[in-house]
Amino acid sequence: MPVFRKPESIINTAGYCGGCGHGVIQRLIAESIEELGLQDHVIGCVDIACSFWSQDALNFEFIAGPHGRCAAVATGIKKVRPDATVYVHAGDGCSYVIGLSETIYAAIRDVPITMVVVNNGIFGMTGGQLNLATTLIGDKTLSSKAGRDPKTMGHPVDMLKTIANCDVAFAARGALYDVKHIDETKRYIKKGFQNQVENRGFSIIEVLSPCPTNWKLSPVDAMAKIKNETEKVFPVGVYVDRGGKD
Amino acid sequence: MSVDYVLMKGNEAIAEAALRAGCRFYAGYPITPQSEILEYMSVHMAKRGGVFIQGENEIASMSMLFGAAACGARCMSSSSGPGFDLKQEEISYLSAAGLPAVLVNAMRYGLGDGEITAGQDSYWVSTRGGGHGDKRLLVLAPASVQECADLTYLAFDLAEKYRNVVEILSDGAICQMIEKCVLPEPREHDMNKFDWALTGKPREARKNKAYNLSYYMGYEAYDRYMREKIESMFENEQRWEEFMLEDAELVLVAYGISSRACRSAVRQARRDGMKLGLIRPISVWPFPRRAFAGVPDSVRGYVSVEMSITTQMGEDIQLATEFSKPLYAYLTSKEIPTVEGIIAYCQEILAGNIKPTEVL
Ligand SMILES: Cc1ncc(C[n+]2csc(CCOP(=O)(O)OP(=O)(O)O)c2C)c(N)n1
Ligand code: SF4
């Protein structure tokens, strides 16, 4: 009978709010790393945002650099420590707004790192402002109090489609609102690490993730919103899987 | 033993000396007048087993450098003017995490996009800048191709010794001129020798984190550490050259390209009976205050010679001399100062026709 146990790499509690998806994602990262036997040679890269807490929670070496620059910081690390497993755990503000250029150029360079992007549709750490890339039309945030208006703020963008224009190893989107989707997300994340072991190139996994605190919803309602609204705009699934071409 | 001279541009001497100091990571974005550093690295870095990356911009280049520096690699980036502005964010982050790195700022003249030719008006952004927060950069200003090589080679050791950012402050003239130079001995750097670097350690080992040192040390210990480090750099890293200070009436103060004209002006003036001397700061942070302690009583004033609109270095001269003598500023903006110009200005000072500078 399978025993449900905590990954040994989780050595501390993290500062996430109750019902936040970051903690689930952090766990899926730890599980994937351990299942692939990589936990003795890992360098994690977190942003100065909510993913920052992961560096206190996991028994890996970490770097936390300037907000938004994670993909570039991880590129520098992977280039000088090619044998280490290097991954990014960052928000959608970091990865798609202030750091979009860094993310796209890590994809263009096809750097063999694993990048996990937490799409919670909002700037979590700073209290819930609009995310130009991911806030849904009509959603109210601290900086779009009447709801996102596409006439002045544009539309949310499926960045995985943009990244799919680059020749990357793997791009996929998962969600966390039920066990089936958590399992699927786990497979994507593990695949991202497996690609790195095999030096296949850039892997990016975006995860639709709740921020109950700033959405001002209960954890259960936040999950329902993802299922009923977010996933319609940001469909889950595999966008690129280059496979074993090299 | 024969000494092997090579003829090189300042930019190339910087790049080659960096490689010989064990620099194995370079990331940067092209901008005149220092693109040759990037181009040199693009050719020679891979041959030494290192990493060269042309970044998508200066910020990303510096973020990549931030990652590589945290792993213990000897790292360099280079830029000028508007490009150097974009490096400020990561200079602050490197400083916060106590990471060594060597940056080159080849000054070009002017505000905004300015000119692509030499200037010295990035003195303040170099000696006072480095983004937000309290820290100091060690800033070394070469005045010859030989010094481009020597100071760059030294910079990597200083960066590691103090876990600090070191800046090579050259200018569009020094970095473009071709002179003979003796290159330093190549050496290898061991990325794994530090107890603070990220290596990706096994589960039972103590893990390193590259982030604000204050987060792990606590602010009290961190503040003390920073104060002591800055004091120690200030005490131990003042570098300068004195030229004909004895019995001087006016002391020129100049670094980089301006100091070369000043040296000739001192010689020429003395032939004509005017007693000039020169203090040439080699470190501009720390500013060599100690150089001014030994200045003879004969000195009637100081003349800061700079390529800028207002004097920037003058403030440091006043602090070094405790406002004890009049300060004059011979400012040539985008033109490199000439021997004749400097001498004529000094003659006017001695004739009482020029007022000390008040704009600081
Ligand atoms: C240069 C800079 N700009 C702004 C900030 C403030 N800031 C910190 S995190 C953040 C946004 C975080 O949102 P996201 O990346 O989506 O991560 P989340 O907290 O939602 O996981 C902002 C604006 C900063 N630290 N640095
Ligand atoms: S603010 Fe939102 S994203 Fe950040 S920890 Fe809380 S719930 Fe999670």
Description:
The complex is a heterodimer of chains A (246) and B (360). Chain A is α/β, with parallel strands linked by helices and 246 residues long. Chain A has a domain at 18-115: Rossmann fold (3-Layer(aba) Sandwich). Chain A has 10 helices and 9 strands. In chain A, strand 1, helix 2 and strand 2 (61-64) form a beta-alpha-beta unit. In chain A, helix 4 (92-98) crosses helix 5. In chain A, 57% of the residues are buried. The model of chain A has no long low-confidence stretch (mean pLDDT 97). Chain B folds into 2 domains: 6-236, Rossmann fold; 241-350, Rossmann fold (3-Layer(aba) Sandwich), CATH 3.40.50. Chain B contains 13 helices and 15 strands. In chain B, strands 3-2-4-5-7-6-13 form a 7-stranded mixed beta sheet, with helices on both faces. In chain B, strand 14, helix 12 and strand 15 form a beta-alpha-beta unit. The longest helix of chain B has 18 residues, at 145-162. In chain B, 54% of the residues are buried. The mean pLDDT of chain B is 97. Thiamine diphosphate binds at residues 47-51, 67, 91-94, 118, 120, 122-126, 131 of chain A.
